[in-house]
Design goal:
By secondary structure, the protein is an alpha/beta fold. About 35% of the residues lie in helices and about 20% in strands. It is found in: Cell envelope.
């Protein structure tokens, strides 16, 4: 994730920075702090610090991944990772496209439930819009897992989701804004774009705005 930080500001929230690299930033300690944090976040990481053990692999499982939108690069990356994983496990994976709208996402979810898979993965869309069909899935003994469905990682009990896989959205948003501050030497003029359909996008955009506003000579030109 760190090595991609300089190339993407977030999956569903954008930030554009216009920089003036020759301006001194000595009078704003926040700019120096931004540079230090960005350097640390983007340094090479060559050691695995994740889990090295896990449960025994179950055999012959089927999964349906419901994408928020197949035009979203982050979602496509997750699908690629899942396809690689099922090749190793021997499981079956089907992908349905939510096509970026609530109606399509709900239609895909209902279609997935009708197929009776072992598990359904909510891929980057808000489960709050699907409370009734999610209850139906649970009633039919379908396991629910999600990716970036809510801002926090872990189980989401109110939706019956076993685990939501996500990074710390606040931290990612903060680092994205700090990158603009650091690269502009504290002169960033930014436009923050978000999508009100997604809770994570709204939260990221707000954190970006708050971070930019801590920089004395930076300015948020637009926020929408």
């Amino acid at each position: 994730m760190k090595k991609h930080l300089r190339h993407t500001l977030s999956v569903i929230a954008g930030l554009i920075a216009l920089s003036t690299a020759t301006v001194s930033f000595a009078d704003d300690p926040f700019v120096q702090e931004a540079k230090q944090l960005v350097t640390k976040a983007t340094e090479k990481q060559d050691k695995w610090d994740g889990p090295t053990t896990g449960p025994k692999l179950q055999q012959n499982k089927s999964i349906i991944f419901i994408a928020s939108d197949m035009k979203n690069g982050g979602v496509l990356g997750v699908i690629d990772g899942m396809r690689e994983a099922v090749q190793a496990t021997g499981w079956k994976l089907d992908v349905l496209d939510g096509a970026g709208t609530v109606n399509n996402q709900l239609a895909a979810l209902n279609q997935a439930i009708a197929r009776q898979p072992d598990a359904i993965v909510i891929g980057g869309w808000n489960p709050n819009v699907a409370k009734i069909p999610l209850k139906k899935a649970i009633k039919n003994n379908i396991k629910l897992v999600s990716w970036h469905a809510t801002p926090e990682p872990g189980a989401v009990e109110k939706y019956g989701i076993f685990y939501n896989v996500t990074s710390d959205s606040n931290e990612i948003a903060k680092l994205s804004a700090l990158l603009a501050v650091a690269n502009s030497d504290g002169k960033a003029k930014v436009i923050i774009l978000t999508d009100s359909l997604y809770e994570i996008a709204l939260r990221k955009a707000q954190v970006m705005k708050e971070t930019i506003e801590k920089c004395k000579e930076c300015k948020v030109l637009e926020f929408y």
